[in-house]
Amino acid sequence: QVQLVESGGGLVQPGGSLRLSCAASRSIFSLIAMGWYRQAPGKQRELVARITSGGNTNYADSVKGRFTISRDNAKNTVNLQMNSLKPEDTAVYYCNLDIFTVHSTTTYWGQGTQVTVSS
């Protein structure tokens, strides 16, 4: 079992920045992908950014050039630097971890952290 603990959400003005962090409760010596999803009121949860154990990244088109995902293997954390924030970035952001084996994928979620972009 893995627990994911998120931090860094809050209220920021348009154009501002926030940094989200997600810490896994233990080291994972498997092929993984770790990232962030978000869910705004009345909308489906969507991928924001994701990074694999091989270092490959992918981003939602809406955040490319503004958000950067990074990973600290020594601390079992993944970070999301969010710049030039817009009101439409307002959502609950969830940390996600997928652990891949030959036969299955196990998925874990954090509890979510609120990001509000408003003047």
Can you describe what's shown?
The protein is mainly β and 119 residues long. 0% of the residues lie in helices and 55% in strands. The protein contains no helices and eleven strands. Strands 2, 4, 5, 6, 9, 10 and 11 form a seven-stranded mixed sheet that branches. Strands 1-3-8-7 form a four-stranded antiparallel sheet, with no helix packed on it. The radius of gyration is 14 Å and the shape is elongated. The chain starts with a strand and ends with a strand.
List the helices and strands and how they pair.
Blueprint: E1 4-7, E2 10-12, E3 18-24, E4 31-39, E5 46-52, E6 57-59, E7 67-72, E8 77-82, E9 91-100, E10 105-109, E11 113-117
Parallel strand pairs: 2-11
Antiparallel strand pairs: 1-3, 3-8, 4-5, 4-9, 5-6, 7-8, 9-10, 9-11
Quick gist of this model?
It contains no helices and eleven strands.
Indicate the proportion of strand residues.
over 45%
Rounded to the nearest angstrom, the radius of gyration is 14 Å
Number of strands: 11
Shape: elongated
What's the end-to-end separation, in Å?
Answer: 40 Å
Q: Count up the helices.
A: 0
Q: Major sheet, described briefly?
A: 7 strands, mixed
Structural class: mainly beta
SSE order: EEEEEEEEEEE
Overall pLDDT level: 93
Tell me the quaternary state: single chain
Task: Kindly state the percentage of residues in helix.
Answer: under 10%
